[in-house]
C-alpha cells in the first residue's frame, strides 16, 4: 500500500514538473521565444517559395525567346530568298511581242492619212521593241516597207507600263497612190533582234467601224521611244 502511494506521488510530481516547465516557458517568453521561432520557421518557407515564381518567369522568358526568334526569322529568310531571285528575273529583258504587250491603233488628224500604233509593256520584265512593226491590213499578202530615215539611234526599251510608238502612212496625201481601198482589220507582228524574223504572237488592234483607207504608198516608221518622234514622219 505504501508502495502504491509512493508511485502516485511520483507521477503527480512528474506531472507538476511538466506543467511548471510549460508555465516557465510561457512566463519567460518576451515575444522572441516561441513566436520568434515561429517567425524564423516561416521566413525560410516564404524565402524559399519566392524564388520559384522568379525562376519560373525566367524559364518562361528563356523558353519563349527562341520561339519568337524562330517565328520572326523564318518569314525574313523567305522574304530574303524571294528578293534575291526577283532582281534576276526582272533584270533579264525579253523581246516585246503580242503576249507581253498591248497594242492600240488610232487614226490621226495630223499628219493626215496617218495612224499611230502604241505598244505598252504589260509584262513584269523590261522588253525590247526591235526594228519596226510588220503590219498587215485586211487580206494583204505582204507587209509595207519601212521609212529608213526614221530609224532611231538605239533600240526602243520599255520598262513595265511604258509605251513605244510607230506611225503608219496609210495613203498618199496628194492622191498619187494607186490601188486604194478600205480595210477593216489589222494585224501587227513583232521582229526579233536581227530585225528580219517575226517572233512571239501578233497583235490585232481593232480599227474604226468604218475601216481605214489605204493605197500602195502605205509605209511605216521604226518603233520610237516617244510619240513626237513617231508622228514626225
List keywords for this structure.
single chain; 233 residues; alpha+beta; 2 domains; 5-stranded mixed β-sheet; 4-stranded antiparallel β-sheet; 4 helices; 11 strands; 25% strand; disordered N terminus
Describe this structure in words.
This protein is of the alpha+beta class and 233 residues long. The chain folds into 2 domains: 2-49; 95-230. Helix content is 37%, strand content 25%. The chain is built from 4 helices and 11 strands; from the N terminus they run αααβββββββββββα. The strands form 3 sheets. Strands 1, 4, 5, 8 and 9 form a 5-stranded mixed β-sheet that branches. The chain has a 4-stranded antiparallel β-sheet with strand order 2-3-6-11. Strand 2 and strand 3 (114-121) form a beta hairpin. The radius of gyration is 50 Å and the shape is globular. The protein starts with a helix and ends with a helix. 18% of the residues are buried.
Query: What is the number of helical segments per DSSP (H or I, 4+ residues)?
Result: 4
| Major sheet attributes | 5 strands, mixed
Share of helix, binned: 25-40%
Counting helices, strands and paired strands, the structural category is alpha+beta
- Proportion of residues in β-strands: 25-35%
How many structurally independent domains?
2
